[in-house]
Amino acid sequence: MKANEKQSWAISPSYAAYHFGTSGISVAVATGITHPLDVLKVRLQMQLVGQRGPLTGMGQLFVQVLKSEGPRSLYLGLTPALTRSVLYGGLRLGLYEPSKYACDWAFGSTNIFVKIASGLFGGAIATALTNPVEVLKVRLQMNPNLRKGGPTKELRRIVSQEGVIALWKGVGPAMARAAALTASQLATYDETKRTLIRWTSLEEGFRLHLISSMVAGGLSTLITAPMDMVKTRLMLQRECKRVGTYRNGFHCAYQVVRTEGPKALYKGGFTIFARLGPQTTITFILCEKLRELAGLKAI
Known about the structure:
By secondary structure, the protein is an all-alpha fold. The chain has helices spanning about 1-10, 15-45, 60-70, 80-95, 95-105, 110-140, 150-160, 170-200, 205-235, 250-260, 270-295.
């Protein structure tokens, strides 16, 4: 069976299109559903930049945004978010299995370390290619005044005023976060499924996918929240004038801990969990169903 799978990757463009397409569509649907939580997460991460003090909670911020900016503000940056989801999601999840097969071919193994390495590779490559869309998304989420011009006008403004290189602000932490996210999500999901099938009566189906995706969502949130915070701060440098310019991801993390305290790395942490948990669950359940309809093997 493995030989056939390797052959199909080599000779069948339609197989690859279905594979990457199901991944991209799944992530895009999950992103659309959880996008309001992503907007709140970015706002929470940008609280009290360079300061210590009491933080606004997710519920209170939600009410504030609704009152002052209206319900539409919860969908700021949705267009670039969905665009990025299709591209980034398709690559991030889609590269996992080919990487795993390549390691199996080269080393004769698909153990947990191979799964982690495959996830790291897929996440890092996907983010490096799609970082400009992520920068555009968080700029729009943070600034309601940019709504009138839309993504295209903001993209032109960034390039003309800050240069093309600005579209790759925060790419280092973003790659680290995506690599850790993909590795923790996919390796945990994959390994949890195998363990449950081996030790319980569960078989491929909704219950197995639900339990495995919930485990993966919880672990990936815990691991990636600080990286997500650093990535957001770097992409929103112009909002952080109080603390000056962050030189890189490590400098940003140091400055946040020094001026705001260690807990600041988990600002918006509950919102990240509230978003990433359901998003992971929706992504994997939908992806597995779409793969089944497309005639592909389960993840």
